[in-house]
Amino acid sequence: MFPSCIPRLRPSAVLVLLALTGLSSCADGGNWKTLKPQANAARELVSLDGIWNFALPTSIDLEEDKAWTKNIPPSLQIPVPASYNDIFADQNIRDTSKRRNILRFDAVTHEARVFINDRDVAGHIGGYTPFEVDVTDIVAPGEQFRLTVAVNNILTSQTIPPGNVEVDETGKRRQLYNHDFFNYAGIARSVSFYSVGEVYVDDITVTTEVKDQGKGATINFSATTNKDPKSSRPRVTLFDEEGNEVASASTLQGSLELSSVHLWQPGVAYLYRLRVELLSAKGKDTLLDSYEVSVGVRSVEVRGNEFLINGSPVYLTGFGKHEDSPVRGKGYDPAYMIHDFQLMKWIGANSFRTSHYPYAEEVMDYADRHGIVVIDEVPAVGLNIGLSAGTSTDEPTLTFSEKTINNQTREVHAQTIRELIHRDKNHASVVLWSLTNEPASNEEGARAYFEPLVELARELDPTRPMTFANVMYATPEADRIMDLFDVMCLNRYYGWYVNTGDLASAEIGLEQELNEWQDKYGKPIIMSEYGADTLAGTHTVIAVPWSEEYQTQLLQMSHRVFDRIESVVGEHVWNFAGFQTASKSIYRVDGNKKGVFTRDRKPKAAAHALRTRWLEEGVRKGQGNVTAAA
């Protein structure tokens, strides 16, 4: 039943989704500085997930089509959340009170415009972070209205991720892009209404300091409200996992001291709850608003070539992943999410990278709760014009130029950094920010492009180290930006794209290069990608590429090298599971097959070999906690 204070969507109301095939300007008004909605004594929450009517535009000019001015018939319908591309068997679709009432979208890929009836009320650019719009003065409680969302899936040189549209001699438009995963689009995550009072908490930042060898801790907090702080009285309370109050304060900014503390650690998660309440300023304890965040007390530090959590070196085991599953595409799916975490536990993984975009907030919450370490990555993939599907091309165009990746692109990139750090800053599981994947960091212009972005990220969050995933062609001699970062993440495919089928030569080449990185920088190295495409069920007596035996032996070769390099502090196999890619290259047959699990999560032989290394053999014994999450 809908609370009366929230604009009620009557059964006859129509929710519609419009998939765009062309670019359009995006209306202002979408607020990205949002807190994830909560339902409690002061806040109400209604989900708008369900079946939405769907239509393709009649024109690439959104203003000419004006689909939001009419009801879209239910001849085509789509589930929300979900990517729309794989739902239909259609090639054209595959390629698109006194209280405040707020409409929130967890993610719309890649650009959204929101219409209520005939009114353009909000817009947002960026496909993986949330935005919202205050609709209090637009619709009245109990009023029936039409909600339309126009979704733009076009990528250009000034989007993140980038791409370009090619028009052939027949006038057919074709989307091109350099990243090696399918350009899924749609309302990929939940849509909801929530309500707050006239005065409410609009942001909370929490950081923790571990002291006395883990026997004590300081929890720093800073909360802001939508109005003058004098319009309410704050009450801040910290609870342990049993619900006991362990500390409190009466200010919006301050610190809480714990003489005894349960630390958040890989595989051994412990979460406190910090509750911020706003009470009436007139002396009565009338509750105006309440919001809670989970707090994992832990420290993160880079010291020399070590990566430390709570002062102890850790060795990361796990994967690069994708939010990808059959039919749903990139749509958030709690069943797949929990199953994936269970498979990571089974195999002995203690970490993953959100390659190559921010994952759903529910994923981050689950990682917090279960002690999984996360490298959190912005959607800046494909900033490398000379790279396609993991291989170099003959394309001579420079990546960084006025006509390609330029200052405008960098401003969009900067906004994705702001939105990611704002959304995920309080997650204990997040220990590294990754600012880009496989950029052309060996090209002229790379340093001028990335140095301001690193400075911005450090300003936004001085508590976490920074990294990026370096591509094979940006060698220690050629790379121009590695010194800007704290941890070296290397994507290397010795035995696959290099020394294909020759694991003996691959082993020599991989060890030589890792020693060069180690000698030049002396920083921690995380092998953020390594692996081989493998067709499940293909077995050979002599290991040859595409066989399960070859994938297993390539991983084992890589591990021998890692174990000989002191600075290697983590290994993330590419990939956790097979995933869909664009059908533009002979290198991909119905997607990328590098997963140690198939796209529908069946294990290959390599999965059992990794389980043996990560659990039974206990890789890097004595170097921190390397067990899977409980």
TrEMBL record:
Lineage: Eukaryota, Fungi, Dikarya, Ascomycota, Pezizomycotina
Superkingdom of this protein's organism: Eukaryota
Residue stretches making up the Glycoside hydrolase family 2 immunoglobulin-like beta-sandwich domain: 199-298
Organism: Cephalotrichum gorgonifer
Keyword annotations of the record: Glycosidase, Hydrolase, Signal
Signal peptide: 1-29
Family: Belongs to the glycosyl hydrolase 2 family.
NCBIfam families: PRK10150.1
Protein's recorded name: Beta-glucuronidase
One Pfam family per UniProt: Glyco_hydro_2_N
Molecular function terms from GO: beta-glucuronidase activity; carbohydrate binding
Record carries keyword Signal: yes
Biological process terms in GO annotation: carbohydrate metabolic process; glucuronoside catabolic process
Record carries keyword Ion transport: no
EC number(s) recorded for this UniProt protein: 3.2.1.31
Domain Glycosyl hydrolases family 2 sugar binding per the UniProt entry, residue ranges: 99-195
Domain Glycoside hydrolase family 2 catalytic: 300-614
